[in-house]
Amino acid sequence: MTGTEPLEGAAPAVGAPLLEATGITKRYGRYTALDAVDLRIEAGRTVSVVGESGSGKSTLARVIIGLERPDSGSVRFRGEPVRGRRARRAFRHSVGMVFQDPYESIDPRLTIGEVVAEPLRAHGLYRRDGAARVRELLDSVGMEGVDPDAYPHRFSGGQRQRVCIARAVATDPELVICDEPTSALDVSVQAQILNLLLDLQRRRGLSYLFITHDLEVVRRISDEVDVLLRGTVVERGTAEQVTSRPQHEYTRRLLGAVPAISPRQRRIGAPLISDAPAVPDSKESTESKESKESNSA
Ligand SMILES: Nc1ncnc2c1ncn2[C@@H]1O[C@H](COP(=O)(O)OP(=O)(O)OP(=O)(O)O)[C@@H](O)[C@H]1O
């Protein structure tokens, strides 16, 4: 984990976290989905928000990225309030998002190159070297040798998620919000995608806000964890504290739902970062084979 390593580029204001959400409350009619939630992410760190279905995790992600307005509360990025059109636009430029379902989150009428180019175009960054930038982005997510003019239907779920990750980092964001990025994927592919995210974090100094219900994913990827129950944070701590010595009954229950794995399996599963390039997943198309060849070359 990149942890305390310094980041390249300008640092956030001294002492300020990269992202700070304070007192976020969101109601749908009479239902309170989020009740005065605070969240803080230091630069280069991964904060996971865990909770069972309906606890408000996705709502929190949507509010933070600005897809929904909170009833109250505020978001600060690099110490500055994310308020007003200009600040919001600048914020969107600095924050990428990866969604759960790589089938739904890609427009099937666009080529994968166009998908990755979308945020570049939206922020006026698609210039003469745009095609080369797209190539570089695809390469950086283990899609070497893959034709950018191919359409998404030719790719497996894991490969589409790689395309979504390339899109999420296209504008060189400092923060990427990942909303259950592995839960729609085959188990065999999940570890590869987590590996890729960790690898990108190491290479780019990214911070992650990781939304998940999967405590095993939390153990592997997070520095800090916030446990959400019916819109309220009931426990907060390091990944080690929360997963090894949970204080709240609800967290213990969530942990109880994690299938027991042996120490040997855990050793096999970790570390997630290997020096080998990510290998495309098993549901291969022609592109994935090409990619595999170039990976193993
Ligand atoms: N647009 C909406 N209109 C009405 N209620 C909503 C809306 N979005 C979310 N909710 C409600 O808010 C609560 C929190 O939903 P949210 O999707 O944030 O939970 P979650 O923890 O992400 O769960 P899941 O993992 O199932 O997505 C749920 O009870 C949900 O029904």
Automatic annotation (TrEMBL):
ABC transporter domain residues: 19-255
One Pfam family here: oligo_HPY
Annotated PROSITE patterns: ABC_TRANSPORTER_1 (PS00211), ABC_TRANSPORTER_2 (PS50893)
Keyword ATP-binding carried by entry: yes
UniProt keywords, alphabetically: ATP-binding, Nucleotide-binding, Transport
Gene Ontology molecular function: any one: ATP binding
UniProt xrefs under Gene3D superfamilies: P-loop containing nucleotide triphosphate hydrolases (3.40.50.300)
Biased composition (Basic and acidic residues): 281-297
Location of region: Disordered: 266-297
SMART domains: AAA
Family as reported in the entry's similarity comment: Belongs to the ABC transporter superfamily.
Name listed for the protein in its UniProt record: ABC transporter ATP-binding protein
Naturally occurring in which organism (per UniProt): Streptomyces fildesensis
